[in-house]
Each structure stands twice: as structure tokens, then as C-alpha cells.
Amino acid sequence: MTATSSEPKPKRQSCTFICSRGSIDGAYPALVLAINSRRLGMDATVFYTFMGINLVRKGGFAKAKFIPPGVLGAIPGMATMASKMMKKQIDEANIPTLEELVEVAQLEGVRLVACRMTMDMMKLSDDELMEGVEIQAAEDYLKHARNCTINMFT
Fold it and tell me: Which architecture does CATH list for 14-153?
């Protein structure tokens, strides 16, 4: 059976990824999943909230660090050393940097969205965000997310 012009066109699948951590290991999953979902023909949104919002501030992806879990993360200088080691592993594995990934994400049509409540809580102004980042209240995010095929907290 072939589709006729009177039949509704199938709705495009959509997904969202919530990024609440502003660290290297918080940033990569949401971007990689969003880029790959776009490449599969889906719409993709990354919703940045709480500390994750620091990533979409101007220069935020470049400042992201890897903070070791537990007591190690509390040792002075450990985050800097662990971040250097993580970035070296990323480079050796030929994985793009976060700055490169976010550029690819934007070029491929991934929507980057900052949480309005988090912006208000952190007293951030709209002009502190990198270019192309939208701002949404949680309610608006949920209105979109409730119709998505996939919603993930990364």
C-alpha cells in the first residue's frame, strides 16, 4: 500500500538528553548521543540544568574538568591532573574535544537548551550563554519531552 497525499506524514522521532553535570564525563554522553540521534534522522535536544549549565556558558566546554569520584576529587590539584590525563586519553583515542563536539552538534541541528530556573538561581544573564543556546522553563521542556521517543538523564 502506498501513501496518498491525504494520509498524515509519519511524525519524526525525537529525543532529549538532560545534562546536569558540568564535567568532562557529564558533557560527553549527552553530546555524543544527541549527535548520533540526529544522524539517525531524529530530532535531538540537550537540556542543560544545574551544574551542566556551566558548559553552555561562553567558553564553558573548554573549562570542563574531570573530577575523580570520592576522596580523590577533594585532593587539591587532583581535578587538574585527572583532567589532563582524561584529555590525553580522549586525544589518543581520536575522540573529538568537547569544543569540537558541540560545534558538530550545532551544525547537525542539535538543540542546546539552558534551564531558565537554573539561570535565575545562578543569576546568569542570557548574554553569558554561548551563541545558539535557547532558554526554556522546565514546563516547556516537559511539554516537548512528553512526546519524545527517548528521554535520558545523562
Answer: 3-Layer(aba) Sandwich (3.40)
